[in-house]
Write a structure and sequence with these properties.
Layout lengths: L4 H5 L30 H11 L18 E4 L12 E4 L1 H9 L4 H10 L9 H9 L2
Antiparallel strand pairs: 1-2
Length: 132
């Protein structure tokens, strides 16, 4: 029964899944731009500003062994201005991407987050960024 070729032909073929969008295509007809990496000096300045804490939930990234993520507040992946980058833990970054944390909440947290009295030294920054 299962090996019978005529039995298999009676079922319609499954549609093949696409493996993502091609370059130049995107959801809802928008053109997809090529993402440029955030420059290292902007990452270091953002981490110095955050004091190695998530700027939304204030988790200590180094103590909790969390990799810092850099979120573009305006959603433009090529806008690497320091006022557009916020340091988040992976949980908060996921929430920000899904829209649970709004853009207005991120701007408020960025502007009202306490500035560290003594920021992390460069060894701590390198440990967060590169794991050493």
């Amino acid at each position: 029964m299962w090996g019978n070729e005529s039995y298999r032909k009676s079922f319609p073929k499954k549609a093949q899944k696409s493996k993502g969008t091609l370059r130049g295509e995107g959801p809802r007809g928008k053109k997809k731009t090529k993402r440029t990496p955030i420059p290292e000096n902007v990452k270091k300045k953002a981490l110095m500003r955050s004091g190695r804490y998530c700027q939304y939930c204030r988790k200590d990234l180094l103590r909790n062994r969390l990799m810092p993520t850099f979120h573009h507040i305006d959603g433009n992946a090529s806008n690497h201005h320091l006022n557009n980058i916020i340091v988040l833990c992976p949980d908060c970054h996921n929430k920000a991407d899904r829209g649970v944390i709004t853009k207005e909440q991120l701007i408020y947290k960025l502007r009202s987050s306490p500035r560290p009295m003594v920021g992390p030294n460069m060894d701590e920054i390198n440990k967060l960024l590169f794991g050493w």
